[in-house]
Design a protein that fits this description.
396 residues; alpha/beta; eight-stranded parallel barrel; two-stranded antiparallel ribbon; 15 helices; 10 strands; globular; Dihydrodipicolinate synthase family protein; DUF993; Aldolase_TIM
Length: 396
C-alpha cells in the first residue's frame, strides 16, 4: 500500500538557485509505492524506457553508443514488474539521437527475448533512421527503409510502433504522399501497430509532418490515413503536448483504435478521461515515475479516481520541468532520476547527453522529485545529488 507522507527533516543538502544563491534544502516528503503491481489495470500503459550507457567503454560518446546491456534489461524488468508495458527503442532511448539502428535492433532483440521469458508487453520502434535524410531521394526510398526495419523487428518476434520519419518529413509534400507511404507499409504488417505522431517540439526535423505546418490540416490528414487503415492500427501515440488536440483526435478515431497519450504535461487528466472517453498511455515520463504511475493506475482500476489523482497529480510539475524547452533534452532528466533512484550507478548517457541540462535544472528536478515523493531511497538520492553537485564545483 501507499504509505502516508512522512517528513524527512533529518535530510538536507545545499542546492543552487537561479539567483546564484545557495539554499539549504530540507527534504519534504517520502512515499513508498509497491514494487510490483497488485491487481489488473483498466488502462494499457507503456513506459518509453531509456538505455543505460556503459561508463567504462573506451568509445567516443558523441560518435558511438556503448550500452550496459545487463542494466538496460534490468530496468525493463523493473517496469514489467509494475504492470507497465515497454515501448522499446523510442526517442527516450535516444533513438536517432545517439542510438543508431544497428544498436537499436540489438536492443529490441534483447528486450523482446526478455519479455517473452516472462510474458510481458513490449512494442518496438520501427522507422527509417538508417536512411540518412540527405540520401532519401524518393518516397520509395522511405517505404523501403520502413519495410526493412519492420521486417527486422517482426523477425525477432516484436510488435511494431511505426515511428515518424525524418526522411518522409523532408520528401512528403501533401496528403497523397503520406497516404502512399503509410498505406504501403501498413498493408504488410503482421499485427496491428501503434502509429507515433511525434511533434517538432521533440524533434525539429519533423516540422511539417503530414505535409503541412498547419496542425488542423495535419490532424485531418493523419486521421483520414489512420482510419482508412483501422484494421492494421492498434492505436495512435500523439506527442504534441497539446491536450485539446489529443482529445479532439481521440474522438475522431475509428472506435477500434486506441489513443495512447504522449502528453507529458497533461497525462493525468487525459488518462482519467471524461464522459466521452479516455487515453491509454505511452509516455517517456513513466520511465522516471514508474512505481507511482503503476500504483495510481491500480487505484483508477478499482474506481478510486481521487486516489489516482492524489498519487499522479504531484508528479506533473516534475514532468513539466523534465520536458521543458528544449524538450528534446528531456532524456537527461529521465536518466538522472534513474541514477538518483539507484537503477544505475552513474550519471553517464549515450551521446554524452548528461551535459544537455544545467546544474540548476538538475537541482530543481531533485526538489520536485522529493516534493512528489518520488525518491525511492532519500538517503541514497541525497548522497548522489551531493556527488553531482561536487563534480560541478558546488559545496554541499
Amino acid at each position: 500500500m501507499n504509505k502516508p507522507v512522512q517528513p524527512m527533516s533529518s535530510l538536507s543538502l545545499k542546492l543552487p538557485k537561479a539567483d546564484r544563491s545557495i539554499e539549504t534544502y530540507r527534504l519534504a516528503a517520502s512515499r513508498t509505492f509497491p514494487a510490483k503491481l497488485e491487481g489488473p489495470l483498466n488502462r494499457i500503459a507503456f513506459s518509453a524506457v531509456h538505455t543505460v550507457a556503459d561508463p567504462f567503454a573506451d568509445n567516443d560518446p558523441w560518435l558511438s553508443a556503448a550500452v550496459d546491456w545487463d542494466k538496460t534489461i534490468a530496468f525493463r524488468e523493473h517496469v514489467w514488474d509494475l504492470g507497465l508495458g515497454v515501448a522499446e527503442a523510442m526517442d527516450t532511448a535516444q533513438r536517432g539521437m545517439g542510438l543508431d539502428w544497428p544498436t537499436s535492433l540489438e536492443l529490441i532483440t534483447r528486450s523482446v527475448a526478455a519479455a517473452k521469458r516472462r510474458n510481458a508487453l513490449v512494442f518496438s520502434g520501427a522507422g527509417t533512421d538508417h536512411l540518412a535524410v540527405e540520401d532519401a531521394r524518393s518516397l520509395d526510398d522511405v517505404i523501403r527503409a520502413y519495410e526493412e526495419q519492420v521486417s527486422a523487428v517482426e523477425k525477432v518476434g516484436g510488435r511494431i510502433i511505426m515511428m515518424a520519419s525524418r526522411a518522409l518529413a523532408k520528401l512528403g509534400r501533401n496528403a497523397d504522399d503520406y497516404a502512399k507511404v503509410y498505406d504501403r507499409v501498413l498493408s504488410q504488417v503482421r499485427e496491428p501497430v501503434i502509429i507515433h505522431w511525434l511533434g517538432d517540439i521533440f524533434d525539429p526535423a519533423l516540422a511539417g509532418y503530414w505535409g503541412t505546418r498547419d496542425l488542423d490540416k495535419a490532424m485531418d490528414i493523419a486521421v483520414a490515413i489512420i482510419n482508412a487503415n483501422a484494421a492494421k492500427v492498434d492505436g495512435v501515440k500523439v506527442s504534441l503536448l497539446d491536450k485539446q488536440r489529443e482529445i479532439d483526435m481521440r474522438r475522431r478515431l475509428d472506435k477500434r483504435i486506441k489513443m495512447y497519450t504522449g502528453d507529458d504535461f497533461n497525462y493525468a487528466e487525459l488518462i482519467a478521461g471524461d464522459e466521452e472517453g479516455f487515453s491509454h498511455a505511452l509516455l517517456g515520463i513513466f520511465d522516471a515515475i514508474a512505481p507511482a504511475a503503476s500504483y495510481a493506475l491500480s487505484r483508477l482500476a478499482v474506481g478510486d479516481e481521487a486516489g489516482f489523482h492524489d498519487v499522479l497529480g504531484p508528479t506533473v510539475p516534475l514532468s513539466r520541468h523534465i520536458f521543458k524547452a528544449p524538450t528534446r533534452f528531456y532524456k537527461t532528466g529521465v536518466v538522472f532520476m534513474a541514477y538518483l533512484n539507484g537503477h544505475q550507478d552513474h550519471f553517464t548517457m549515450v551521446g554524452g547527453q548528461e551535459s544537455a541540462r544545467s546544474m540548476l535544472h538538475l537541482a530543481e528536478l531533485f526538489r520536485l522529485a522529493d516534493q512528489a515523493g518520488l525518491l525511492a531511497n532519500p538517503e541514497l538520492a541525497t548522497q548522489r545529488m551531493k556527488t553531482v553537485l561536487a563534480t560541478h564545483g558546488f559545496e554541499s
